[in-house]
């Protein structure tokens, strides 16, 4: 596999991951069927929770809004954080839920360990 093929594969993987990972916090997101993708550029169609539609370009420089201010973002998360207030709320809520789940799991595991230690003492 040459460098162009490897770069194209990396962009493809990154685009697919972006679609999967933020779908919960946008109205819609997909790899654009309108624009041909290449080894240097992928396009995503995005509609935010506010109803704003964007064409997002993914290159080796990062993510940017086509016809936007030209600013590149390292991740799709940072791009959405800059363009969608409701995304920030959804992301914060999802993060808080995951942290609460983790805390509950740790409490259960600690309780299970305490039960096991107490049983060994008797």
From TrEMBL:
<dbReference type="InterPro" id="IPR007967">
    <property type="entry name" value="GSKIP_dom"/>
</dbReference>
<protein>
    <submittedName>
        <fullName>GSK3-beta interaction protein-like</fullName>
    </submittedName>
</protein>
<comment type="similarity">
    <text>Belongs to the GSKIP family.</text>
</comment>
<dbReference type="InterPro" id="IPR037395">
    <property type="entry name" value="GSKIP"/>
</dbReference>
<dbReference type="InterPro" id="IPR023231">
    <property type="entry name" value="GSKIP_dom_sf"/>
</dbReference>
<dbReference type="Pfam" id="PF05303">
    <property type="entry name" value="GSKIP_dom"/>
</dbReference>
<feature type="domain" description="GSKIP">
    <location>
        <begin position="13"/>
        <end position="102"/>
    </location>
</feature>
């Amino acid at each position: 596999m040459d460098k162009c093929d490897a770069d194209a594969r990396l962009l493809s993987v990154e685009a697919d991951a972006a679609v999967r990972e933020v779908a919960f916090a946008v109205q819609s997101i997909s790899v654009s069927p309108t624009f041909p993708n290449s080894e240097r550029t992928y396009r995503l169609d995005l509609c935010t929770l506010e109803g704003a539609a964007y064409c997002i370009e993914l290159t080796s420089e990062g993510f940017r809004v086509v016809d936007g201010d030209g600013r590149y973002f390292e991740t799709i998360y940072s791009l959405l954080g800059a363009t969608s207030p409701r995304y920030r709320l959804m992301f914060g809520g999802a993060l808080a839920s995951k942290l609460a789940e983790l805390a509950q799991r740790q409490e259960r595991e600690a309780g299970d360990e305490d039960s096991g230690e107490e049983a060994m003492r008797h």
